[in-house]
Amino acid sequence: MIRKNRINGQNGRNGMTITPLMAVMAVTVVCLCCMSIISNSHSIENAMTDCAMLALSNTPNNDKNKVDNYDVLLQTKHDISFPKTCHGKGRVMAASTMTPKVPKAKAIELAQGGFKRIGQGSGKVDLVGAIAMKLSKMQHEFGIFGTVAELGVHHGRFTSCLFITARESEKLVVADIFEQQEKNVDKSGKGNKEKFIQSLSVYGLQLSDLHEMYIGSTDELPYDWSEQKEFEQFRLISVDAGHTAILTRRDMMLAACNLLEGGIVALDDTFHSNWFGVTEGMIQYTTTAVEPHQLYPFLYCDGKMLFTNDRKYHTRYYDALMDEPLLKPILHTDALKWGGSSEFVMNGVNFLRCKREDADVKEIWTSVIY
């Protein structure tokens, strides 16, 4: 099948240069304007998501050569440049084996509703969890085997959807402040270590199955975390820790610095009406990051934006999702408002958006578990 090129240029329309600050302001202004005219039948969160999608589908891309002074505006204690200890886009894989770490019967039980025995975080995980399983199978077929991780696990519901994708050779890593709530500067969640450990038993794992459980703020983790703790770089990682712009940007950098080539980052609570900092931090990161640490979005689903660090794999994941018979009907390339003229674009690439109301989630799960 012949497909159009989904990689766009880096300059704005009519030669206009869009700085990262302007991009953030554009999203904010469009969102606020749209909020005043959204139908009363919409929830605030849906309204904000729709408006953010509108902004991204019409905001020109930035010129990365024009952002030298932008980092001064962040006023953060963190070094915003990529440190020498950042070695992302690695190619040292875990051993290739298709034997699952979690028995298939346990994975099916979890997927068919068992995850509800684990305390819920801020959003639904079943549909995006099934898609994570589909993407994981693709990664393994491509020969990508590495660590599966989550920053900010709460009680472990989405963690379970990630961990059942792991193969026997792949390590499991988590990080959360848990009871150290004095470090929870934005009050974005209240994880519980004991409840998280209990959640592992729902799908047949225990604490000893984790290679690393870091307790503390993720902004204290080193950029060469995988090297220091001797685990392969991430194949799949969820970022759901601090929800300020600074912490989000820092966590995205941490993920990118420890991400295999073709690895996937799932950033939670993007475009969430209660957590504007996540969206701001995401835009700050994608408009200032450089190769090989840049991240390219290919799917927005249930509040999570999924990225990869390689344009080649971006195209592969995007196309494969659209080629999946059970997924294609629920994936949209544009806002469906102006006859396909408002494609979802960010950071120079197109991404898809899922529509949960059209999905038979259990059937999708059944088709993708392996």
TrEMBL record:
One Pfam entry name = Methyltransf_24
What's the domain of life for this entry? Eukaryota
Transmembrane segment boundaries: 21-38
* UniProt keyword terms in alphabetical order: Membrane, Transmembrane, Transmembrane helix
Q: What is this protein called?
A: Uncharacterized protein
Which lineage?
Answer: Eukaryota, Sar, Stramenopiles, Ochrophyta, Bacillariophyta
